Amino acid sequence: MFVGHYAAAFALKGKEKDASLGLLFIATQFVDILFFPLALAGIENLKFEESFTEVNNFNMDYYPFTHGLLGTFLWAGLFFCLFYFVCYKNKSNKKQLAMIMALAVLSHWFTDLIVHTPDLPIISGAPKFGFGLWNSKILTFISEAVLLVIGLLYYLKKTVETSALGKYAAIVFVLFLLLINYLNLFVLPANDDIKSLTISALFSYVLFAFIAHHVAKKRA
User: Fold this and answer.
1) With pLDDT > 70 as the criterion, what percentage of the chain qualifies?
2) How would DSSP label each residue in the chain?
């Protein structure tokens, strides 16, 4: 799962207009933002196996700290505390804002569940879960596109444009994300170098969050 994670960010922004869409983009990808550096450091494990799935060569057989369900709950709890006690401590709706951020982090595990092979643990080791849509590029692309469009439609329904660009900026941004995902799935060669993969992934997460932040300024 790549751009499909951002469906939760759009939906949660629609639910809570005071939340930052840029930060929600970071929160929905937070465990992956941790995973790639941890894999690079050898703390979690990412092995590249040719044709492991149709989508990628990722055999992730040990990543309990970022992709275990318990670990994801703990990171979500950390986000709740951070935003409740630090970032939004002076806001009257700080509890709701902190919960929105925590849900964004937690959403990652459940959206990964759709596409991953059975490699997502509850804590560490068996049992592991995953519906395996990565075994089909077409189904992976469709599932991510459907999630993203649903999230976008909810966001557009719950917000209104504040400028001439507000009506179209989010739609163009989602089309851009879908184009990136198409290129990633069907055009670009597989990247099996953990260092360059980490750099490109982190760059993408920051870039998309930056764009999302500015897109959200066009609506309220």
Assistant:
1) 100
2) --GGGHHHHHHHHHH-TTS-HHHHHHHHTHHHHHHHHHHHTTSSEEEE-TTSSSS--EEEEE-HHHHSHHHHHHHHHHHHHHIIIIITTTSTTHHHHHHHHHHHHHHHHHHHHHHS-S-EESSSSSSEE---GGG-HHHHHHHHHHHHHHHHHHHHHH--BSSTTTTTHHHHHHHHHHHHHHIIIIISPP---HHHHHHHHHHHHHHHHHHHHHHHTTB-
